[in-house]
Amino acid sequence: MENFFGLLKSELLYLQEFDSMEHFEQELADYIYYYNHKRMKTKLKDLSPVEYRAISK
Known about the structure:
This protein is about 65% helix and about 0% strand. The chain is an all-alpha fold. It starts with a helix and ends with a helix.
C-alpha cells in the first residue's frame, strides 16, 4: 500500500492542481483504472496487474 500511495502522490497529486473535489475524484478514478489496467510491470512479465491475474488463475 505504501508503494501505491507514493506513486499516487508523485504521478497524480504533485503534478496538477484540481479545480474542485469532483475534478479530483474523477482524476483519482482515472488513475486507479490506469494503475490496474494499463500500467505494465516487469515483475508481472510486462503485463498489467489485471492481465496478470487473469492468466494466473
